[in-house]
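Quick one, probably user error.
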């Protein structure tokens, strides 16, 4: 018999007029709240094994948030006996929540800096939601259900159709429609008490929480948050998590002929209203699935495992690199398309600045040649591992008058606040939860539709003989490193490819590590060969103080 409990806690953060995390725009600052933000957790227990799944209304999870949550749980709630390998902390990826929670400098230039009050607000909500879930634990039954959005449901579109169409498995019909070039399925785990009353659910559907644009000044949980609130209003005394799936190249905005005009019409009506409307569509689909037939009644054992690796130096299995031997990842590098942004969700730096960066890169960046085997045709602007712009061995290359975030970056660089560690996380975890015949895959970034399908296929084929029937990608889990595109998508170098930081073999590296994790999780715990000493680095108090405001 399974036991389960759920908890929901408000993120009680101070209004500090900080920047929002997601768009990286200096003027995208919080002046007031449109909606509250929440952390929601579910625990599932069976035969002494406890799995914890948490989802937070935040842009992404950082190594620091995860580390702090585990430290406090161990210190103040040791009686819960939490196994850190069986805790999956995820984000629903709203771009309209406060920034400043990351110790990694690259993600806080537009905040500006690290804000311990913001970090602690998220950490406290996560911990309280987990503790509350334990307190509400009861005997339950679990059901897996799924449903597909009708093609006429205007809920999501592929925003990088050219890259998507470059994949060999994409058929001709989907090449011609951005609304069909994604996974339109919603996957749902339903929790019922022994009287068959639903006490909660978790669902996964991939679509960016970017209904609200980058000129916004009101914090909001965006479409996923509205969907969760609507479902909890529909079913009182229950808690519902709207988690992210394969969302890397999926937008809540129409992409295609007339996209600019349609986006302007939405802006005129109001982005927050549009977020509600998109959330309502996700809510109706979840309600339909809950009230529909069961796809798989969950029975069987629970297991969870987590594996860290340094993604700057993974030699990938040739099975995932078109049979090429010796292919590997490299330093984490941001390409020019990353700075251009996306045409509808959020444009990046102005076109003249992009042209200037392109010219400067062609003249200055001689070091790029050493990265060609891994970074391929990417026009590298920032090396986040060596902490340099245009291969110049430093970050303060662009004049401060260009942008306020550039000004902050130059300021921090000059006063020595960027010396330690990398600018973004590079030691990252992959994670697997097994719940009977269901596998939940924790991915520490934004994985595109086809890349996600490939990972799902790999895990299903590897674990099929061990009873796994369904595999679900759960993105933005435990850490964040940018995007994961297929090699074919990467070659096109649209926004997602420019933000696939470890190069053209990034997906192959994740496939290599997920396959390794699959082989370990099926072994008895005492026989697993996993390096438990490899963890994200700590930041010194001295350096953190230099960029804490």
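Nope, works fine. Designed sequence:
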């Amino acid at each position: 018999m399974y036991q389960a409990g759920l908890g929901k806690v408000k993120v009680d953060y101070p209004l500090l007029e900080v920047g929002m995390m997601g768009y990286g725009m200096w003027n995208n600052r919080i002046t007031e709240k449109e909606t509250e933000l929440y952390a929601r957790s579910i625990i599932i227990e069976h035969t002494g094994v406890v799995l914890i799944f948490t989802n937070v209304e935040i842009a992404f999870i950082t190594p620091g948030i995860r580390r702090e949550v585990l430290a406090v749980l161990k210190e103040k709630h040791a009686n819960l006996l939490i196994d850190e390998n069986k805790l999956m902390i995820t984000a629903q990826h709203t771009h309209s929540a406060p920034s400043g929670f990351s110790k990694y400098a690259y993600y806080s230039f537009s905040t500006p800096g690290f804000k311990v009050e913001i970090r602690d607000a998220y950490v406290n909500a996560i911990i309280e939601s987990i503790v509350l879930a334990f307190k509400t634990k009861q005997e339950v039954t679990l059901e897996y259900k799924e449903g597909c959005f009708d093609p006429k449901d205007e809920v999501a579109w592929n925003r990088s159709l050219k890259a998507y169409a470059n994949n060999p498995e994409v058929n001709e019909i989907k090449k011609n429609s951005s609304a069909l070039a994604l996974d339109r399925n919603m996957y749902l785990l339903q929790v019922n008490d022994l009287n068959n009353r639903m006490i909660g659910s978790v669902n996964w559907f991939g679509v960016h929480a970017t209904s609200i644009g980058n000129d916004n000044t009101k914090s909001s949980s965006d479409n996923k948050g509205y969907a969760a609130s609507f479902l909890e209003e529909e079913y009182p005394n229950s808690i519902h998590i709207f988690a992210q799936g394969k969302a890397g190249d999926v937008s809540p905005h129409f992409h295609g002929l007339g996209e600019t005009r349609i986006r302007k019409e939405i802006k005129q009506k109001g982005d927050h209203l549009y977020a509600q409307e998109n959330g309502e569509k996700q809510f109706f689909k979840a309600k339909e699935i809950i009230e529909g037939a069961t796809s798989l009644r969950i029975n069987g054992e629970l297991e969870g495992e987590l594996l860290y690796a340094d993604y700057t130096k993974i030699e990938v299995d040739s099975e995932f690199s078109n049979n090429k031997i010796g292919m590997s990842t490299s330093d984490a590098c941001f390409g020019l398309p990353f700075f251009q942004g996306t045409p509808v969700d959020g444009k990046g730096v102005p076109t003249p600045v992009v042209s200037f960066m392109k010219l400067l890169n062609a003249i200055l960046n001689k070091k790029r040649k050493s990265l060609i085997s891994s970074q391929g045709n990417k026009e590298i602007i920032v090396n986040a591992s060596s902490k340099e712009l245009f291969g110049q061995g430093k970050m303060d290359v662009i004049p401060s008058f260009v942008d306020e975030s550039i000004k902050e970056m130059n300021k921090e660089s000059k006063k020595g606040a960027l010396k330690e560690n990398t600018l973004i996380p590079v030691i990252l975890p992959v994670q697997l939860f097994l719940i009977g015949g269901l596998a939940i895959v924790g991915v520490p970034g934004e994985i595109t539709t086809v890349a996600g399908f490939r990972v799902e296929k790999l895990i299903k084929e590897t674990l099929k003989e061990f009873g796994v029937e369904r595999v679900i990608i759960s993105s933005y889990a435990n850490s964040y490193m940018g995007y994961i595109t297929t090699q074919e998508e990467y070659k096109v170098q649209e926004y997602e490819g420019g933000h696939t930081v470890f190069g053209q073999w990034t997906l192959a590296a994740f496939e290599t590590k997920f396959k390794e994790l699959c082989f370990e999780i099926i072994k008895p715990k005492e026989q697993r060969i996993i390096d438990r000493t490899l963890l994200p680095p700590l930041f010194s108090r001295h350096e953190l103080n230099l960029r804490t405001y």
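The two ends are 50 Å apart (CA to CA).
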